[in-house]
Amino acid sequence: MSTILEVEALSKEFPVRRGLLQRQRGSVRAVDRVSLRLEEGECFALVGESGSGKTTLARSIIRLVEPSSGSVRFRGRELLELSPRELRRQRRDFQMIFQDPYGSLNPRMTVRKIVAEPIEVHRLIPRAEIPGRLRELLGLVGMPEDALDRYPHEFSGGQRQRIGIARALATEPSLLLADEPVSALDVSVQAQIINLLVDLQRRLGLTLLLIAHDLAVVEQIADRVAVMYLGRLVEVGNASEIFARPRHPYTVSLLSAVPVPDPTSGRQRILLPGEPPSPMDPPSGCAFHPRCPIVRQRCSTDEPALEERAGWPVGCHYPDEMSAPLIG
Amino acid sequence: MSRGAGRHLVLITGGLLVVVVFAAALLAPLLAPREHSSQTLERRLESPSAEHPLGLDELGRDILSRLLWGARVSLGVGLAVVVLAGGLGTLIGAVAGFVGGRIDGVLMRLCDVVLAFPGILLAIALVAVLGPALRHVVVALVLIGWVSYARLVRGQVLQLRELEFVVAARAGGYPPLRILWRHLLPNVLPVLTVQASLGMAGAVLAEASLSFLGLGIQPPTPSWGAMIDAGRSHLLDAPHLALFPGLAILLTVMGLNFLGDGLVDYLDPRQRRLYERSG
Lengths: 328, 279
Hints:
The structure holds two protein chains of two kinds.
Chain A: E1 3-18, E2 23-39, E3 43-47, H1 54-61, E4 69-74, E5 77-78, H2 84-90, E6 94-97, H3 111-121, H4 130-140, H5 157-169, E7 175-179, H6 187-204, E8 207-212, H7 215-221, E9 224-229, E10 232-238, H8 239-244, H9 249-256, E11 307-309, E12 312-314
Parallel strand pairs in A: 3-8, 3-9, 6-7, 7-8
Antiparallel strand pairs in A: 1-2, 1-4, 4-5, 9-10, 11-12
Helix pairs in contact in A: 3-4, 3-5
Chain B: H1 3-26, H2 28-31, H3 63-99, H4 101-116, H5 119-130, H6 134-160, H7 164-171, H8 176-212, H9 224-232, H10 240-266, H11 269-278
């Protein structure tokens, strides 16, 4: 397996302006020195609660949001150094699927125009071959051909999401970023779309960066998982291992929130005290310490690095102290 | 009558009035019973009769014919101003909203400067400097008129560019101009239509005001504003001179405003979303 995407110490800060003169009064670190590596053909999931910076991280990686610092290498090519024109050309290799199937399709364009547009922009095939390619793409995502001349509002959420996926696949990308692709859909439709994504990933050999807060979905399809809290990664590893033996106290509590269909399992949900702290004013030391059930003195002063600790990287001074009894 | 039908009534009334006025202007050469500048001095100020349905003016010219020809001036100026000011304003607003940053700041301060003057006074001053002529009226009205379009389009673009389909277009690697042209502007069009119909009403009124002051089109070409000006000195002995052009302006402006208001209701975002999602 070769590396397709390498992110190093990527940070994104948003200036906070206040008052009459709009002076900058500090900044929000939405993404804080995140490093990760995606291997060709894997499904890598990014999980964490709302506001943890998952979307900003994904958008910074492909420069939909300009990162403040760090490095992103796609197949060895540094994306942050590309000129706008080079970046636009490169975009055909990494496409995105959006959360809101209502907002992500232009209401004034037919499905034909929506799906054909990336092909035209990147001049991928001769004009005469476009209709055939469109039929092929619709077939891939399980939509009937007669959908082509209709408008987005004529379709259901799940169907719209399929159209969005067809648009993303039109340029034959090798990396697909899916930002909460099913969280806006009915539960009954979620499974269909997830299955479609898994199927496409296998058939087309895609690499998938999946952003999700629904851990049940992640457990089903992800090869590896990164857990994000307040803009930082706190644990990265194989999905099966992390789900079996979460090591960071935040991961443990996150997993305890996944419903289990067995009422006799006796498992308890860990309720974290308080709200996630404001990223404008992150806590000292470990960002998780004010809510951590196993907090010690050291946690409020030393920031734990995300390092390999007997198995896989965990950003905690006291990994493994909180796990087995609470899960399953 | 249901609320929905009432809303449509405004739209339909406005639309009909506008269609009638436009038709009158277009067909003036066919509809006008007389030559608009031929004088019958001995019958000056004559009241409406079967021969001259709206009467004769201070030089014995047929008022109905002058009204029909005058519609061409009023609507011509109105259209020209809307197209030019709308085009200029849309361009400036789209650039400001799309590019943002310093350019946005400069363009919006420019808008503030224009807005700081009372529009009609600025137009009078401009025409006074340029000289009284119809094209100078258009220039002046465009120079004060673009601002409202620019601000509107900028606001819309700022709002739309955060929507996911625009982000999707950027993620797809589409060039900025294509995003602006194919994804942003078509979605600004509905509000722009409303603004254009209201803006045209304003332009018709402004042209009439300038012509009333003698700054617009020059005699003998008829213009509603100039006709009211001429009728001003005969308000007591021959009120029909000022009455009919006044009514023409009233109906035209009312029609355009009804049309604009009707369109606002018709394109109401809440209703539109309902319509789109249930379709």
